[in-house]
Design brief:
about 300 residues, mainly alpha, 13 helices, about 75% helix
Length: about 300
């Protein structure tokens, strides 16, 4: 129950919130988390279409370069002041880990023969790796969160059970998937600790610009593999506007609001939501086992991300 002294402090708390960020209410954060999961999941659908018409590194360079331009324009229109070199450096590290390393290695691992289901499972384990590394970045993981993590991973396994097929790929392909897993895990923790205070538009401009520069040599080695068909153009536009601007923008805000290991647990919901989208758009099978996995994963996310009861 709030008394008069608590109510008097609310305007001060809200006033300290960074410009353009909503008050830290549980309901608004939950809504942002749900929107993030849906937007991020659509990227797997759009990426599946785009890779039919473009090489992996060509696609990533086009996506990240387009997102760089979009975020730079948003920052320019808002007349956002330039951050210091330290902030730029930290955002650049996040761009290398969360964008270039994560997407580059996973796309390449799939090209080398790693199964899509295995790649999805590896990325789905990101919350576990993030939680294991969290103490090194000053975060504590409670017993309740570990239970939620176990449930979340169990739900992902149920959803992907019919797609987990090992074999036919080299050891290097699976090592690339693991490298991508550590890239996104370290990038998430690093951003929360060092790069979440900068303006989101400027921070994401730097992240995508650095990722573009890192991947350009790989795209040149790959050669021009873009057919510029309407399907390719539409899917890349979706990846830029919805996933890079919408998805990474929401991730930036969520990391600013909460602990990195709590935000990471939302990734448990991405494989189930992607399965639903694939069923709706491509007619892929959505069985009772997948539905059960969805419920188990959602239960784990709820258990691991809900705030502790006030004393």
């Amino acid at each position: 129950m709030m008394d008069g002294s608590h109510s008097e402090t609310l305007p001060a708390v809200v006033a300290r919130e960074p410009a353009g960020v909503l008050p830290k209410s549980i309901s608004s954060t939950s809504a942002l988390g749900a929107a993030f999961v849906v937007l991020w999941s659509t990227g797997y659908v759009a990426g599946k279409v785009a890779l039919i018409h473009a090489g992996a590194f060509n696609l990533l360079v086009a996506r990240f370069a387009g997102a760089t331009l979009a975020f730079a324009l948003l920052a320019a229109f808002a007349r956002v002041g330039l951050p210091g070199w330290r902030a730029i450096m930290h955002s650049g590290v996040v761009g290398v880990l969360s964008l270039a390393v994560q997407f580059g290695t996973i796309y390449l691992g799939v090209q080398w023969g790693a199964e899509i289901g295995v790649a999805a499972l590896v990325v789905g384990a990101m919350p576990l790796v993030t939680a294991a590394l969290a103490p090194w970045f000053g975060e504590r993981v409670t017993a309740r969160q570990w239970i939620g993590l176990a449930l979340g991973l169990g739900g992902v396994l149920l959803v992907l059970a019919d797609r987990l097929h090992f074999g036919g790929a080299s050891v290097g392909a699976y090592l690339l998937l693991l490298l991508g897993l550590f890239g996104i895990s370290l990038g998430t923790l690093y951003q929360k600790r060092y790069a979440s205070n900068v303006d989101a538009r400027l921070g994401l401009t730097v992240q995508h610009a650095v990722a573009t520069l890192v991947l350009v040599p790989f795209a040149l080695h790959e050669g021009l593999q873009l057919d510029f068909s309407p399907a390719m153009n539409a899917s890349i536009a979706w990846l830029i506007v919805v996933n890079s601007i919408g998805g990474f923008g929401l991730l930036f805000i969520l990391l600013r609001r909460g602990a990195a290991n709590r935000v990471a647990q939302l990734f448990f919901l991405i494989p189930p939501v992607t399965a639903v989208l694939s069923f709706a758009l491509f007619g892929e099978q959505f069985s009772l086992l997948k539905l059960t996995g969805f419920v188990v994963a959602a239960s784990g996310v709820y258990l691991g991300t809900r705030p502790a009861a006030p004393r």
